[in-house]
Amino acid sequence: MSQQENLPFDEEYYQPPYKAVYRESIENAEKFWRKMSEELEWFYPYEKVLDETNAPFYRWFSGGRINISYNALDRNLKSRGNKIAIYWENEKGENIGLTYSQLYNEVNRFAKVLQDLGIKKGDRAVIYLPLMPELPISMLALARLGAIHSIVFSGFSVQALIDRINDAKAKMVITTTHTMRRNKRVELKGIVDQAVEQTPSVENVLVIKRNEEPVMKKKDVLYQDLAKRTGYKKVEVEETSSTDPLFILYTSGTTGKPKGIFHLHGGYGIWTYLTTKWVFDLRDNDVFFNTADIGWITGHSYIVYGPLQAGATVLMYEGVPDYPNPDRWWELVEKYNVTVFYTSPTAIRSLMKYGEDWIKNHDLSTLRILGSVGEPINPEAWRWYYKNIGNSSLPIVDTWWQTETGGIMISATPGLGNYMLKPSANGLPLPGVDADVFTEEGIPTNPREKGYIVIKRPWPGMLAGVWNDPDRYIKTYWSKFQGVYYPGDYAVKDEDGFFFILGRADEVLKIAGHRIGTREIEDILISHPAVAESAVIGIPDPVRGETAVAAVVLKQGYTPSSQLRKELEDYVKKTLGSIVIFGGIYFVSKLPKTRSGKIMRRLVRSVISGQTLGDVSTLEDETSVDELKKVIEEFS
Ligand code: ATP
Ligand code: MG
User: How far apart are the first and last CA of the chain?
Assistant: First the structure.
């Protein structure tokens, strides 16, 4: 697999200061973080860089006072007041631009409304909004008051919303009437109305009016009414301590029941600020387009908190990439002169099928860095992205991180002069990230030997815990290996220190004594001309330990047949070796995925082994599971 074939491992791509900065961050950690933390504004200096007294509940910059909303807005007012902070556009092409000072005013007005409704430091509010400007505005307003937000992705339905409101014991829900998706109205307030019947902690629902009159219920208050009365007044910022919670956010639920991760003002603030600069190299004339929804960590950290603290301009798009046409994103890149573009492998795969003609009519020459996040990017998608969007010349930062890590952990770092990319690799650890790969016994692997990725020391962006569940925090992340953070991913590290993520640790296949990451087989299947997407799992086999089973989505123009099944088996064997024995290849029209687009292999496994499905609260489309059931029944 020579995915980044045009960008060889070459010292030329590897300029200072990455190496020196990384070394300093590890060898002189205390001094390093003191220096880095000076780039943001503190109300009161911290005592300790890292407080380990209650490990593994590590606390960063304890004793200090800092507020992330202040650092995103007030701090940028003087030098960047008239610079655009947020461009927003919807499907129809309606758009606005908010400068830093306009955003500051909106956030203060929103904060005043919240304050008048009794929201204060430590209170929790759930935000259930689409990608509209009031989403970042309400986040920043809550943070300004020291209140804690928990954003529920607007695609989630009633039960997920109820669970998250009750877990946080939220005092308020912030919502709007609807959003538009492919020119169809998607109801939001109706879902909130149902949810609040089962969430006793909610005192108010703050409803933001769009272009229709909301039907008001008992607890509802209309934002526009209150805002008109309030006007634009400055609201004193809460001088939160570094270790005060900023938000709760649930993981994607790819491997099990979502975990309610929470992050703090200080460490998370510094980590998102620094990683934005290191990875995306944002400078003053950059326009950053991150296609993620703010309902996921990628949007929290790299639409809102990182870029705004860094004083950048971000573009927010409320819509899907292929409506009205599959060139919607490229239209936006051209229109706003986007320079840094960040998306996911699943989005790239979905756009690939429309062909390159949709790209050719657009001038994408302002782009200078491309990024990927969410899942391993398979070589087919990488090549397409590199060639068609990157004009075969732009670096692709393949950023590995998690809701739990707060920000990017492993990636190339153009902002530190490190553009170096290798076939299929995510890259090198960011400064402060002491990453390694361990064997089952907790010993570092040899180069190119597979194992579990681990982080051997705390870093500022690390999760503070699992909300309401300290035991789950310890069990999930700090129990596999003594004193070491366990992310739950499978990986290798090569002799140059590059990391390659091979999939989820609990989805590794064990075939005839060999361990194979799901990614390894899936990458090969997708490189076959007939295959669009695949999900591979292992099922027990009395002789070989496990055999591989694949659910495969074919590209347009190909039809399922036993001949094609045989061809795919042979194709994988030819590439990976004859150890890979298939227990079945099932052709389906779609894979079970989370609402953020990640493949849910555990559901493929449950269906194939006839077990109960487990938590399906984040499953995007239930018919994917039904179809798979049917295909398997027909086959056997
Ligand atoms: P859950 O923890 O509930 O199962 P999740 O792990 O998908 O869900 P997220 O925090 O959204 O929740 O995703 C983090 C995971 O996504 C990582 O642990 C990793 O498996 C995968 N991932 C993210 N970025 C990359 C990347 N660039 N390359 C490979 N894998 C990635
Ligand atoms: Mg996870």
Answer: 34
Contacts of 86 (CB under 8 A, 6+ apart): 97, 98, 103, 133, 136, 313, 314, 315, 316
CA of 180 to the centre of ligand 1 (A): 28
Output the six-digit token pair for 565: 């099944």
How many C-beta atoms surround the C-beta of residue 275 within 10 A? 30
Distance of CA 347 to CAs 118, 203, 342, 622, Å?
A: 41, 38, 11, 20
How many alpha carbons lie under 13 Å from residue 27 in its C-beta half-sphere?
6
What's the CA-to-centroid distance between 157 and ligand 2, angstroms?
Answer: 21
Structure tokens given for 476: 């999930």
- Residue 517 CA, chain-centre distance (Å), reads 21
> pTM of the entire structure?
0.96
- From the CA of 455, which ligand is nearest? 1
Q: Judge contact between 308 and 437, C-beta under 8 A.
A: no
Q: Is the CB of 385 under 6 A from ligand 1?
A: no
Q: Distance from the CA of 401 to the center of ligand 2, in angstroms?
A: 9
Quick one: residue 179, left, alpha or beta (phi over 0 = left, psi -120 to 50 = alpha)? beta
User: DSSP labels for 499-548?
Assistant: EEEEEEGGG-EEETTEEE-HHHHHHHHHHSTTEEEEEEEEEEETTTEEEE
The dihedral formed by the CA atoms of 292, 296, 297 and 302, expressed in degrees to the nearest 10? 30
356-382 burial code (b ≥16 CB/10 A, e <16): eebbeebebebbbbbbbbbbbbbbbbb
Which residues are close to ligand 2, an ion, with C-beta < 5 A? 251
Main-chain dihedrals φ then ψ at residue 4, nearest 5 degrees: -95, 45
Estimate the share of the chain in helix, then strand, then coil, as percent rounded to the nearest 5.
35, 25, 40
Q: Which ligand is nearest to the CA of 487?
A: 1
CA distance 367 to 348: 16
Please tell me the predicted confidence (pLDDT) of residue 3: 39
pLDDT digit string (tens) for 487-526?
999 999 999 999 999 999 999 999 988 999 999 999 999 9
- The pLDDT value given to residue 636: 73
CA of residue 269 to ligand 2 center, whole Å: 21
Ligand showing the shortest atom-to-Cα distance for residue 258:
1
Query: Quick check: helix, strand or coil at residue 429?
Result: strand
* Cα–Cα distance list, 106 to 181, 234, 401, 591, 615 (Å): 26, 10, 31, 41, 39
Cβ-in-10-Å burial (0-12, 13-18, 19+) of 211 comes to exposed
CB of 507 within 6 A of ligand 1: the answer is no
Beta carbons of 468 and 480 less than 8 angstroms apart: no
Cα→Cα distances 429→18, 410, 418, Å: 10, 4, 11
The response to whether residue 593 sits with its C-beta less than 6 Å from ligand 1 reads no
Of the candidates 376, 355, 358, which has an alpha carbon nearest to the alpha carbon of residue 3? 376
Q: What is the pLDDT of residues 25-59, one digit of tens each?
A: 999 999 999 999 999 999 999 999 999 999 999 99
- Note the Cα 573 to chain centre separation in Å: 33
**402, pLDDT greater than 60:** yes
